[in-house]
Amino acid sequence: RDASFAVIRAVGVETGGSNIQFAVNPENGRMVIIEMNPRVSRSSALASKATGFPIAKIAAKLAVGYLLDEIKNDITRETPASFEPTIDYVVTKVPRFAFEKFPQADPTLTTQMKSVGEAMAIGRTFKESLQKALRSLEIGRSGLGGDGKPWRIGTDVYGDRDILPRDVISRKLSVPNAERIFFIRHALRAGFTIEEIFNLTKIDRWFLVQIKEIVDFEEELASVKN
Prior knowledge:
Blueprint lengths: L1 H10 L7 E6 L6 E7 L4 H10 L3 H9 L26 E7 L20 E7 L2 H10 L15 E3 L2 E3 L7 H9 L5 H10 L4 H8 L3 H18 L4
Antiparallel strand pairs: 1-2, 3-4, 5-6
């Protein structure tokens, strides 16, 4: 939040909406700005949906001379737009990739945009919103897995409940790719520890623990007979 304000002031944005993307090194906290858009963008629409704060509408009113204190919050009808929105739910946005339609494209994920769309979901917890977002991608998966559908890796086909070879999982985790999040599930089912997965992916341990709780619950359900 403080870094965003610093960027906006440095760029000279006096009014309206902006979106800023950061990359943060979890080991030392070093922060790098990936991009800064001093305008309403696709990200603004998603942020508006997530928070209930109509960024484009407020920006338009500010542009014609309104002050934030003069604009009422559309949801509360009482508080002014100068009050920052607070939410009691978790919003998860997941990109949609379609590398199968672009065989010449490099499927390795970088800071370059390669997604063809995205899905956003709202839930009371991160686990709920993540599962809902993955289901909403329309790639034929019911969340992280556990849906009985096969997994195809090159020419090999594995059952949904099969334990995949550790070398296959390690390759999928060590390089950022569109299927990486699904292979965190496979890694946990194959006996990888949180620390091993972290060392391969550098994904924050908090998220890995949350995914592990989903997988643990899947295993609990799978152990119930009939």
